[in-house]
Design goal:
This protein is an alpha/beta fold. The two termini are about 30 Å apart. Helices cover about 30% and strands about 25% of the residues. This is 2-C-methyl-D-erythritol 4-phosphate cytidylyltransferase.
């Protein structure tokens, strides 16, 4: 396995739920777009990594100056996240080794800490399957009846919230996504495709502040998280928000 991981960052989404004039990855926090914060955090953890950045073919907002990696390539994004990841894997075919580790990270998760990134990479270094950052479910879980009322209270025992990055061997991830597509499976993350092969990805406990920017209020919350991380003595390897 190559020591430096491959990084795949899907960033082709339109972010319609944000109700903004541009995709959410280009909304600003602390004077920089979300995408720049996310790439900076990844670069601090893995400065020698090779990056595949998946962008919409008609993207008019992207600036290459936001990419801190020396070895990176722009890949055309797809209609869905899985399409973007598949395009990235195809783009590095012949260059990536079968056993190279590929970490896929949501561009809308700028608050992932360097410590979590480094620890995930270390845990997966010798894992034959791969795995993902995740946190145990802390809230009481309700199942809706489809009409705005509760139909049941579900046990949260053993339930985890899936986060990113999610990391798997290049060959295994290619096979998992290829077979999922052939079977018509809905793939919401890389782990679910690997699970469909009968494999059990490793759950690596991460921090709860690795939030995903999805709704308008998330942007302000993420900015507060970044500021708190920068001010925290325990976050000694955080990214300086000033760049």
């Amino acid at each position: 396995m190559s020591e430096a991981p491959w990084l795949v960052v899907p960033a082709a989404g339109r972010g319609r739920r944000m109700g903004a004039d541009r995709p959410k990855q280009y909304l600003e926090m602390q004077g920089r777009p979300v995408l720049a914060h996310t790439l900076a955090r990844l670069h601090q953890a893995f400065p020698a990594a090779r990056l595949c950045l998946c962008l919409d073919i008609d993207d008019r907002h992207f600036d290459p100056a936001w990419v801190p990696f020396a070895d990176w390539r722009r890949v055309s994004g797809g209609a869905e996240r899985v399409d973007s990841v598949t395009n990235a894997l195809e783009a590095i075919a012949g260059t990536a080794g079968e056993c190279d580790l590929v970490l896929v990270h949501d561009v809308a998760r700028p608050c992932v800490t360097v410590d979590d990134l480094v620890r995930l990479h270390a845990v997966l270094a010798d894992d034959p399957v791969g795995g993902l950052l995740a946190v145990p479910v802390a809230d009481t879980m309700k199942r809706g009846d489809g009409h705005g009322r509760v139909s049941a209270t579900e046990s949260r025992a053993g339930l985890w919230h899936a986060l990113t990055p999610q990391g798997f061997r290049y060959g295994l991830l290619c096979r998992a996504l290829r077979e999922a597509r052939a079977q018509g499976l809905v793939v919401t993350d890389e782990a679910s495709a690997v699970e469909a092969l009968g494999q059990a990805p490793r759950l690596v406990a991460g921090r709860r502040d690795n939030l995903k920017i999805t709704h308008p209020e998330d942007l302000a919350l993420a900015a507060l998280v970044l500021a708190a991380q920068a001010a925290s003595p325990s976050h000694h390897r955080g990214v300086d928000p000033s760049g």
